[in-house]
Write a structure and sequence with these properties.
Elements (H helix, E strand, L loop, with lengths): L10 H7 L1 H12 E2 L4 E2 L14 E5 L1 H18 L3 E5 H4 L11 E6 L5 H12 L3 E6 L5 H5 L2 E4 L12 H20 L5 H22 L2 H11 L4 E6 L3 H16 L2 E6 L16 E5 L6 H13 L3 E7 H6 L5 E6 L7 H20 L17
Parallel strand pairs: 3-4, 3-5, 5-6, 6-7, 8-9, 8-10, 10-11, 11-12
Antiparallel strand pairs: 1-2
Helix pairs in contact: 2-7, 2-8, 3-7, 3-10, 7-8, 7-13, 8-13, 9-13, 10-13
The structure holds 2-deoxy-2-amino glucitol-6-phosphate.
Length: 367
C-alpha cells in the first residue's frame, strides 16, 4: 500500500514519531492488558527445557538481540549467546538438538541471517524469528514467527522496527522467566504493567526533540563521538553510534562504560563529545565514576538520564537530557528515542541524504 511522509521532512522522522503507536500495537499483540499477562502463540518448545538460547541477527537487529540477552538471563536465568549472523554462520557454533535459536530481522531477507537460520535448522534447534515482514523468506522458513507490528519501514536507518523488536523480546523474556519458575504471577504482572507504560513514556520522550535539535548543531561540528552505557544501555550505546555513523557520516563508537579505561579513554579531549546513556538503575553509580573520568580529561559529556540520575550526577560542563522516570528493566525502548533523534538531527544539519545514506541498502540480501 501507499506509504508517504505525511507532514514529515523524511521517512526517518515519521518513523521515529510513529513509535509510541506501533510499539503499542506490538504490545497489544503479545500481552493481555486486562490481566497483565504475556500472551504468546503456542510454542513448539517449553522454556523450562531450554538449556541455552542463541540469538542471531545483523546491525540494529543484533543490538535488539543484545538487549534481549540481558533480559533472558536476568528474568529467565537462561544462558544466551548473541552473535552477528556473518560470524555465526561460519564459526560452526555447536548447536544441539533442542536448543533455541532466535533470529531477528526487520526485512526477513538479510542473507547472513537467513543462512544462519538454515544452519540452526539443520542442527535440530528450535527456530523462532522476530520479523517485521511476515511474507519474507526468514518468516516462511522459521518454525515460529513473532511478528513486529511496526508497519513498513522505509528509512534505511532502522528505528521503529528496533523498538518493536525490543517489545516482542521483552514479552518473550517475561514468558521465559515465568515458564522456568523464576518469576511469580505477581512478578509477571508487575513486568507486564511496566511494558504497558512504554508507549506513553515513549511519547513523553519525544517531547525533548527541541533540546536535541539544539544539541545536534554542536555534535555536527565533531569528527568523532563516543557513546557509553552499562547493562542494557550498552547495546543502546552501540546502536547510537551505528545510527550516527550511518546517516551523518560522523565517526562514532559505542563502548561498555566500564571498558573506558581499557583503551578509549586515550581519545578523550575537549573535541570529542561523549554521550552517556544512564538511567538511574543499579549500575548508575558505576557509570557516574566513568563520567568523572571523562570530565577530568576535559571531555564534553551529554548525559541521557532521568530526574533522579540528573540530581545525583553532579558533574560540571554537562548537557543533561532528562527522560521520564520508569521501571529500570525496559529503559532501552524509551532511551532509543533521544538516541535516534540525535542522529537524525545531526544528519539534517550535515545535509546528508537521511533516508538513503550513501553506500547502504535497506536490506542486505547478498553476503
Ligand atoms: C540499521 O539502521 C541498519 N540499516 C542495518 O544495520 C540493519 O539493521 C541490518 O542490515 C539488519 O537488517 P534486517 O533487520 O532487515 O535483517
Amino acid at each position: 500500500f501507499l506509504v508517504d511522509k505525511a507532514n514529515y521532512r523524511h521517512f526517518m522522522a515519521k518513523e521515529i514519531h510513529e513509535q509510541p503507536e506501533v510499539v503499542g500495537h506490538t504490545l497489544a499483540r503479545y500481552v493481555d492488558m486486562a490481566s497483565e499477562r504475556v500472551l504468546l502463540p503456542k510454542l513448539p518448545f517449553d522454556f523450562k527445557d531450554i538449556q541455552r538460547i542463541s540469538i542471531v541477527a545483523c546491525g540494529t537487529a543484533s543490538y535488539a538481540g543484545y538487549v534481549a540477552k540481558y533480559w533472558f538471563e536476568r528474568l529467565g536465568r537462561v544462558p544466551v549467546e548473541i552473535d552477528v549472523a556473518s560470524e555465526f554462520r561460519y564459526r560452526e557454533a555447536p548447536l544441539r538438538k533442542g536448543d533455541l535459536a532466535i533470529f531477528i530481522s526487520q526485512s526477513g531477507e538479510t542473507a547472513d541471517t537467513l543462512a544462519a537460520l538454515r544452519y540452526a535448522k539443520a542442527a535440530g534447534a528450535y527456530t523462532l524469528s522476530v520479523i517485521n515482514v511476515p511474507t519474507s523468506t526468514i518468516a516462511r522458513e522459521s518454525e515460529t514467527v513473532l511478528q513486529t507490528l511496526a508497519g513498513p519501514e522505509i528509512g534505511v536507518a532502522s528505528t521503529k522496527a528496533f523498538t518493536c523488536q525490543l517489545m516482542v523480546l521483552a514479552a518473550l523474556a517475561v514468558a521465559a522467566g515465568k515458564a522456568r519458575g523464576e518469576l511469580s504471577d505477581a512478578d509477571e504482572a508487575k513486568l507486564v504493567h511496566g511494558l504497558i507504560e512504554i508507549p506513553r513514556l515513549m511519547a513523553q520522550a519525544l517531547t525533548i526533540e527541541p533540546q536535541i535539535e539544539k544539541l545536534a548543531r554542536e555534535i555536527s561540528k565533531s569528527k568523532d563521538v563516543l557513546y557509553l552505557g552499562r547493562g542494557t544501555s550498552y547495546p543502546l550505546a552501540l546502536e547510537g553510534a551505528l545510527k550516527l555513523k550511518e546517516i551523518s557520516y560522523i565517526h562514532a563508537e559505542g563502548y561498555a562504560a566500564g571498558e573506558l579505561k581499557h583503551g578509549p579513554i586515550a581519545l578523550i579531549d575537549e573535541n570529542m563529545p561523549v554521550v552517556v546513556i544512564a538511567p538511574h538503575d543499579r549500575v548508575f553509580e558505576k557509570t557516574v565514576s566513568n563520567m568523572q573520568e571523562v570530565a577530568a580529561r576535559g571531555g564534553n559529556i551529554i548525559l541521557m538520564t532521568d530526574a533522579k540520575g540528573a540530581a545525583e550526577a553532579t558533574i560540571e560542563s554537562l548537557v543533561t537530557i532528562i527522560l521520564p522516570d520508569m521501571a529500570a528493566t525496559f529503559t532501552p525502548m524509551v532511551y532509543a528515542i533521544p538516541v535516534q533523534l540525535l542522529a537524525y538531527h545531526t544528519a539534517v544539519v550535515m545535509g546528508t541524504d537521511v533516508d538513503q545514506p550513501r553506500n547502504l541498502a535497506k536490506s542486505v540480501t547478498v553476503e
